[in-house]
Automatic annotation (TrEMBL), chain A:
PROSITE patterns: ABC_TM1
Every ABC transmembrane type-1 domain range: 62-250
TM helices/strands, residue ranges: 7-31, 61-85, 97-118, 130-153, 174-196, 231-250
Location in the cell: Cell inner membrane; Cell membrane
Organism name: Bradyrhizobium algeriense
InterPro entries in the cross-refs: MetI-like, MetI-like_sf
Family recorded in the similarity comment: Belongs to the binding-protein-dependent transport system permease family.
Keywords: Cell inner membrane, Cell membrane, Membrane, Transmembrane, Transmembrane helix, Transport
Lineage: Bacteria, Pseudomonadati, Pseudomonadota, Alphaproteobacteria, Hyphomicrobiales
Pfam families: BPD_transp_1 (PF00528)
Keyword field contains Secreted: no
Keyword hit for Ribosomal protein: no
Protein name: Spermidine/putrescine transport system permease protein
Membrane topology listed for this record: Multi-pass membrane protein
Automatic annotation (TrEMBL), chain B:
Protein family: Belongs to the binding-protein-dependent transport system permease family. CysTW subfamily.
Keyword Transmembrane helix carried by entry: yes
Record keywords, A-Z: Cell membrane, Membrane, Transmembrane, Transmembrane helix, Transport
Topology within the bilayer: Multi-pass membrane protein
Highest taxon above the source species: Bacteria
CDD domains: TM_PBP2 (cd06261)
Protein name: Spermidine/putrescine transport system permease protein
Amino acid sequence: MRTNGPLALIFHTIFVVVMLAPIVVVCLVAFTPEGYLSLPTTSFSLRWFRTIANYPEFVHAFWVSLGLGALSSLVALLFAVPAALAIARYQFRGRDVLAALFLSPLMIPHVVLGIAFLRFFTSIGIGGSFAGLLVAHVVVVFPFALRLTLAAATGMDRSVEMAAVSLGAGDWTLFRRVTLPLILPGVISGWALAFIQSFDDLTMTVFLAAPGTETLPVRMFLYIQDNIDPLVTSVSASVIAITMTALILLDRFYGLDRVLAGKSDPGR
Amino acid sequence: MSAADDTAPANAASTADTRDARAAWALTAPALMLFIGVLVIPLAMTVMLSFHDWGQYKGIEPVFILKNWHEVATDPYFAEMFWRTFRIALLTTLITAVLGAPEAYILNRMSGRWKSFFLLVILGPLLISVVARTLGWALLFGGNNGLVNKLLMSLGLIGKPLPFMFTETGMVVALAHVMMPFMVLSVWAALQRVDPQIENAALSLGASPPTIIRRIVLPQIMPGVLSGAIIVFSLSASAFATPAIIGGRRLKVAATLAYDEFLNTLNWPLGAAVAVLLLVALVMIVVGSNALIERRYAEVFR
């Protein structure tokens, strides 16, 4: 009963092929030598990858996405780490309500968040600015930063902290030299997941981005609205390649299962 | 003195409690302030906005009227659009459940190395931009001679090409692909709590494989399927990129309609009403089905 029968394996094969097909097609079409969308039949060409350089707005949008993702997940952690420590350690009135509030951006449709932020930022005069985007992304990625930090803080052995306190460590020293290093794997995983969420967000960001603050998904979406040509497939293929490289590097140096689960290395 | 002795430990405990509570609030205060300032207030403003007036030339007027809500409630255009939104979300949820649950089960029975490899293959697309994934479907569908139609016709499944682009069928297929990892992940998590020995026990007692699936496996993974269904349903009902790219400008769902009202027509109050209605409907559906699932499967969750 513990092995898959032939029917199961056929199902599995079709399933995997269908899951990969759209991604593979995007990557293949990116290498077409033609001026229109087609699978490269006779020869592969890097023509459309070179064309990206003629569209500086794509390159600019990539850097905006990268900066926004890195910064918003970092700021989210600055708010989430203390909140996670409080929720993990203290039983206090309002704890459940706070936890629910902090996780609520996961449940609110991003289109609603986009509208709410657009309305709010326009009325306080930061509509279309990078600052506005940053604040919006901090709120949206906060649950990811909180959840993984929370998991690490809940599983932490507190006797080490008590030992440090008994040896005379102050609050800040305790946090910096004992608590933070112990929850660091969770914090880094939280940062990575928050970064991915921020980097990928289209639905909310499309409401907030203005020319100059467009992120890569927004730039790609707006481009597709007007014209579909091999350029947008080569941009997609480049992003897929960058994502895969980052994942492989992360797996090599850190362990992908640790990032995704927020667990610390049991061997250390 | 005896009275003081009695109360002293209680006092000590309660001061410790207050001190804990104070520390907890001090640590959560920055995040709480952020959320009130940048989440609660903007959402409240959006609800207010849906009661404001709007005209092509006068713009938004901050008065309290029910015009937008009346329009959303009575105009059949909105009824059709919301019905389409939830129909697409429901179909997507069904497809992910029917295909994702068996796949998670098959995956779980693979040996270690293959298991983690295929888990990565199936969950990996989560990390790839939704725009890129949907673009892939647009390429596969591509008019009457797209690859999907060629394949279906060469298999003899269909006689003439099916329209996928700018149709609900196309939207559902592409959305099911985008949402599939969430369902597989959810069922996978439920399977991790199942003891494989139960299946062997059933087998040794003479149960046939279909009976085992129906009476042993299915009841145990059902909570996973249902919680996956809630995630997939709410994400599909509020999806934007896939309906916008596959559905084009005519076939609208709630999210694309709100986008058009905000960024093309500039009728913000009406767009806000659509968004608030979507939020309220989703919260009611999710909270309702959560309660239902928890009552039905109380013993499984315990």
